[in-house]
Structure formats: C-alpha cells, structure tokens
Amino acid sequence: MTRWRGPDGYWASDEAQLLDTALVHEWLSTLSYWAQGRPRQTTEKAIAGSLNLGLYEAGGVQAGFCRWVTDGATFAWLCDVFVDPGHRGHGLGVFLIRIATDHPEVQGLRFLLGTKDAHELYRKFGFDSPVHPERLMEVRPDLVRPAAGPTSA
C-alpha cells in the first residue's frame, strides 16, 4: 500500500480501505459515458477484483478513481478513470494516470484501455492505437450472441 503526493495537496493511494465505493459508484453510474446505469453490485464486484487507485484532496475526501484489471504477469486494462467534475482543471487526470502507469504492480505489462474522447491525455503516457486492431475482438453482453456449435468430449 502506497501513497503518492500530487498537485495542490492532492494525493493518490492504492489502499483499498480508503475508497468511498458509494461515491465511485455514483460517479460511474451517473456521470460517466461508459458505465451509465451500472448496478452498484457490479461496481463493487469490479473494485473487488481490481488494483484500485483513489485520488484524494488534502483532507482525505475522495476526488477521483481508476482501476487496473490485470493478471499481474502479462496484461493490464486501465479502466473507470474518473475525476470528480468539481476537482477538474488542476492536472489531476494527468497525475492519476501517471501514478497508475508507474504503479509497481503493472510494470512490464502490456497496457490497454478504451476511450471515446481522451486520446491525447493517454498518448502522453505511451498509449496509442493498436498496431494490429484487426486482431482485437470483443463479446458484448448487451448484444445477442449466436449459440456456440456442438462440442465433443
């Protein structure tokens, strides 16, 4: 468990007990474009299975959040990156991404993320379009999937 100092007295931590899960859920399910309407149970399960980073103002009130989904050996997906609207404009997104990408538990891993509108922010940290996007595929639970063919034992 580590704490990092940021701009203007803000700080970040990977200490799970500091996270305000109810606040994180509110941000993601009501203010983000990617998790609108996400059930609280889903947010809690996602946090439980991730390497989480909280962003806090000097007094300890949570101001942001992000998480890594990782196997800890080869791959890490950065997701649910969020800075509270009342705290934006202080370089906190840059600070949070720097702490996330420098975190010792993800060093040497392949990073991926998805974004609709923050490409330039993430490029500052080495993210770019996949070299072979044709190799990436996804299964979306919100779309009907064809049934798998018969299998043999």
SSE order and pairing:
Elements: E1 3-5, E2 11-13, H1 21-31, H2 40-48, E3 51-56, E4 62-70, E5 75-83, H3 92-102, E6 110-113, H4 119-123
Parallel strand pairs: 5-6
Antiparallel strand pairs: 1-2, 2-3, 3-4, 4-5
Helix pairs in contact: 1-2
What is the mean predicted local confidence, pLDDT?
A: 93
Alpha-beta content class: alpha+beta
Strand content: 15-25%
* Multimeric status of the protein: single chain
- According to DSSP, the number of beta strands is 6
What would you report as the Rg, rounded to the nearest angstrom?
17 Å
Give the H and E element order. Answer: EEHHEEEHEH
| Low-pLDDT regions | none
Helix content: 10-25%
Characterization of this structure:
There is one protein chain. This protein is an alpha+beta fold and 153 residues long. It is 24% helix and 22% strand. It is built from four helices and six strands; from the N terminus they run E-E-H-H-E-E-E-H-E-H. It has helices at residues 21-31, 40-48, 92-102, 119-123; strands spanning 3-5, 11-13, 51-56, 62-70, 75-83, 110-113. The protein has a six-stranded mixed β-sheet, sandwiched between helices. A hairpin with a 4-residue loop joins strand 4 (62-70) and strand 5. Helix 1 packs across helix 2 (40-48). The mean pLDDT is 93.
Q: What keyword list fits this structure?
A:
single chain, 153 residues, alpha+beta, six-stranded mixed beta sheet, 6 strands, globular
In a nutshell, what does this entry contain?
The model has no long low-confidence stretch (mean pLDDT 93). The chain is globular and about 60 Å long. 24% of the residues lie in helices and 22% in strands.
